[in-house]
Amino acid sequence: MKIVVKVLQGQECNLEVLEETNVLELKKMVAEHLNVLPDNQKLLYMGKPLSDSKTLKEYAIKDGAKLNVVIRKAEDSNSVGNKEVISLQEAVSRFLRKYYNEADSKKVLNEFMKEFDRSLASLSLDDIERMSAACMLDEKQIV
Fold it and tell me: Residue 15: which H helix or E strand, with range?
């Protein structure tokens, strides 16, 4: 069967695969076409991440399906340029501790993260792609 694998805001490739192909094998095929190491790939089908050990058949991926690949940075550092990168959870936690005691800030943080996850889950990949593109444009203008 033929499938399409597309990078957000980037290249895509058409691959000929079998239903019995596991996700790790697929990542290796993608690596050959898009020059991205399998360890740096996160494959998504209909917004759901795919596990390396499962087969395409287990995800009901059919002929003509379109998968997205999210590319992780090769380096595992917590800095970009001279700026420190912190998680959303850590940033919100720091902010809340200015106004609430430790126990209350944890409660508020947990509720915030639950609502954030619910809101993010309701977005389509197209919505996320548009937001990502807008953020990248903003960063280029700042630099």
Answer: strand 12-16
Provide the domain limits for residue 105: 79-142
Any idea what DSSP says for residue 11?
-
Q: Which 8-state DSSP code applies to residue 72?
A: P
What single-letter DSSP state applies at residue 22?
B
Residue at a domain's end among 71, 90, 123: 71
The residue whose two tokens read 């759901």 is 48
Backbone angles phi, psi at 59, to 5 degrees: -95, 5
Phi, psi of 120 (to 5 degrees): -65, -40
pLDDT digits (tens, 9 = 90+) for 40-94: 899 999 989 999 999 999 999 999 999 999 988 765 445 444 455 568 888 898 8
13 within 8 A of 34, measured Cβ to Cβ: yes
Q: What is the pLDDT of residues 6-32, one digit of tens each?
A: 987 778 899 999 999 999 999 999 999
Alpha carbons 78 and 47: distance in angstroms, whole number: 26
What is the tally of structural domains in the chain?
Answer: 2
State how far the Cα of 76 lies from the Cα of 51, in Å rounded to an integer: 21
Residue 30 token pair = 């993608």
